[in-house]
């Protein structure tokens, strides 16, 4: 699926609308950006954010009302706490409908690594064996 970015004309329109001030919290979007109801951000806007994540839409962007000019902080908050989980769930649903099943088989290397980690560091154990055998132990260069 290709990404539908905002055109330069749409970006200019959003920048003019926002007057370079973050629009997070505008028109009831406070919850999406992790803000209290009625709260607005006053930081400088730097990025253009899709109100509905682009990966969740199947149509092209038609107007600037589908996006907001926001600061980097609020864009990251919305992306990580709202958009990514919804996109992951949509992908799981699409895969299930297509009949794709995730493997439930354990990978042997991971199991072996867990056992080594449970016993302790293999390097530390090697150093201990070397010391018991009376062999010179290399010193760590600092």
Q: What this model shows, in words?
A:
With 142 residues, the chain is mainly α. The model has no long low-confidence stretch (mean pLDDT 83). The two termini are 50 Å apart. The chain has a domain of 91 residues. A two-stranded antiparallel ribbon has the order 1-2. 43% of the residues lie in helices and 6% in strands. The longest helix has 27 residues. The chain has 4 helices and 2 strands, in the order αββααα.
Task: Please describe the topology of this protein.
Blueprint: H1 8-18, E1 47-50, E2 67-70, H2 72-98, H3 108-119, H4 122-132
Antiparallel strand pairs: 1-2
SSE sequence, one letter per element: HEEHHH
Strand order of the largest sheet: 1-2
The computed structural class is mainly alpha
Biggest sheet record: 2 strands, antiparallel
Give the oligomer, counting copies of the same chain as homo and different chains as hetero. single chain
Please state the average pLDDT score. Answer: 83
Count of individual helical segments = 4
In percent terms, what proportion of residues is strand?
5-15%
By DSSP, the count of extended strands is 2
Q: How far is the first residue's CA from the last residue's CA?
A: 50 Å
Work out the helicity level: 40-55%
Shape: elongated
Task: Detail the poorly predicted runs.
Answer: none
Rg, rounded, reads 26 Å
Provide a concise account of the structure shown.
This protein has four helices and two strands; from the N terminus they run αββααα. With 142 residues, the protein is mainly alpha-helical.
């Amino acid at each position: 699926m290709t990404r539908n970015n905002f055109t330069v004309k749409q970006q200019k329109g959003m920048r003019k609308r926002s007057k370079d001030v973050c629009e997070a919290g505008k028109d009831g979007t406070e919850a999406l950006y992790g803000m209290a109801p009625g709260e607005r951000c006053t930081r400088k806007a730097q990025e253009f954010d899709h109100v509905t994540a682009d990966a969740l839409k199947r149509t092209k962007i038609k107007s600037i009302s589908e996006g907001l000019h926001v600061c980097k902080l609020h864009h990251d908050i919305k992306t990580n706490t709202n958009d990514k989980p919804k996109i992951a769930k949509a992908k799981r649903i699409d895969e299930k409908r297509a009949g794709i099943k995730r493997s439930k088989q354990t990978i042997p290397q991971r199991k072996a690594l867990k056992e080594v980690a449970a016993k302790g560091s293999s390097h530390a154990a090697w150093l201990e064996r070397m010391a018991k055998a009376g062999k010179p132990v290399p010193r760590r260069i600092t």
